[in-house]
Amino acid sequence: MNATATDDPILRLAGVGRRYGQTDVVKDIELAIPRGSFTSILGPSGCGKSTLLRMIGGLTLPTSGSIEIDGEDVTYLPPQKRPTNTVFQSHGLFAHMSVRENVAFGLSLARRPRSEIDDRVSDALKLVRLDGFENRPVDRLSGGQQQRVALARALVMRPKILLLDEPLSALDLKLRQAMQEELRAIHQDAGGTFIFVTHDQAEAFALGDRLIVMNEGRIEQAGPPGDVYARPRSLFVADFVGDANFFTGMRSNGRIDLDIGICLDLPGPDGSLQLMLRPEAARLHAAGDGGPEDGRLGVEGKIKEIVDLGPFAHCILELDGGYRIEIAGIPRTMVDAFAAGNRATASWPEAAMVEVAP
Ligand SMILES: Nc1ncnc2c1ncn2[C@@H]1O[C@H](COP(=O)(O)OP(=O)(O)OP(=O)(O)O)[C@@H](O)[C@H]1O
């Protein structure tokens, strides 16, 4: 079955919070997850991602709010009564048992008939591309293969929602990237809804069709990853999901005066504000090459640093007031036109500047 995210939510959280002692580690979460989606929850260590996931899976109870899965209130249901399964970083497989025995474990506990167990185990192992490994003891598998057994063990239960708590973080980078691709394919093949927790920005973008950014127990922003990247609402999100230049300024009657010496029109309340510009949205022009085309904003400065990254280069331009602008994605063919110490101009379209809340 092909998994397509729809607007029909399979999971709804209303006012969900968790308090430990005097500390609210998850605060007032309002969330609807579309059926069939692959959602990544991203945030720094300790922001409450795992606690949120554990509450969805029933491993931790909320101290406020309610959780509904497929129309059913599951807030206080134990994990085994919920249509969820969780895969953790430490997979918790039975090392001495075979792949088949590990994957069949939950169905055997549920006393399913032998023939059904055989069929479902075989389907689950096909999904994670481990058919043929049925009789291998799991301690004779690689780290990536063991993580796939853990996935099969969860998928065999046919959860409506598969919860993944940093399942790839114990793997080395190459294997991790390969497993990210596999996970996407498994989601496509298995159908169902996946929720994946990670503190790794690249991983969250590589995997999810939806992204939730958390900070200090709250959801800062949720939406398609591309939207969150292009239009971050807060300084925290802008900074956490990529590199960003920030400019401060004052707005009066819709006219903004930025401290870097440029003016633009952007409606909003009067007062001080911050705008963000992604480094790859800016272009660099050498002195005398005609400068930016009409309609683009431009500032001149001295090249502080130019770093050749292979296919692209990266530059720090220092403006006369001491401000620095980072410009990324300068094509390799243009690198020779720029050298540290030379004057140059950075330019970008006005629309690339996004106002961010403090
Ligand atoms: N059982 C507990 N008792 C007391 N405090 C807890 C408990 N579980 C989690 N916390 C605290 O709640 C906060 C959020 O923890 P959580 O594990 O949800 O964060 P996280 O975002 O998943 O972090 P990481 O990426 O490091 O796993 C942390 O400050 C943590 O110390």
TrEMBL record:
Domain called ABC transporter: residue spans: 11-241
Statement: the UniProt record of this protein carries the keyword Chloroplast: no
One GO term describing the cellular component: ATP-binding cassette (ABC) transporter complex
Pfam families in UniProt: ABC_tran, TOBE_2
Keyword Cytoplasm: no
Stored Gene3D superfamilies: P-loop containing nucleotide triphosphate hydrolases
PANTHER family: SPERMIDINE/PUTRESCINE IMPORT ATP-BINDING PROTEIN POTA, SPERMIDINE_PUTRESCINE IMPORT ATP-BINDING PROTEIN POTA
The protein's name in its UniProt record: ATP-binding cassette domain-containing protein
